[in-house]
Every structure is written in structure tokens, then in C-alpha cells.
């Protein structure tokens, strides 16, 4: 649960601090930080995130961020 909370906190902080002038490198760094914490989350949390990604039409991100979900 802590890793999932950390991933969400990183996303919220990054989105809140982002300005139009930010570059792609910062975006990639933020996504990599999120992915590390999501990959460390338990399988039930990875499944929940995977289902949420499917729900918002971003199923391609499940594998891209390294989530391991067999039942999705």
C-alpha cells in the first residue's frame, strides 16, 4: 500500500508543480519514479492500477510501466 500511495503522491506533486515550460526529460523522470513504486506494490494494487488504466483507455501503459498482472 505504501508504494501505491507513494506513486500517487509523486504524480500529484508533479502535476501540481508542472508548468508549460517543463521539458520531456522531467516528464520521463516523473513516470519512471511512479513506475518504480507501482512495480513494488503488491499484486492486488498492481491489478487495481491496471484496471484503472483500462478504464481510462490507457491499457498500453500497463506493460509500459512494468506492471505484472495476469488477471487483468
From TrEMBL:
Protein name: Uncharacterized protein
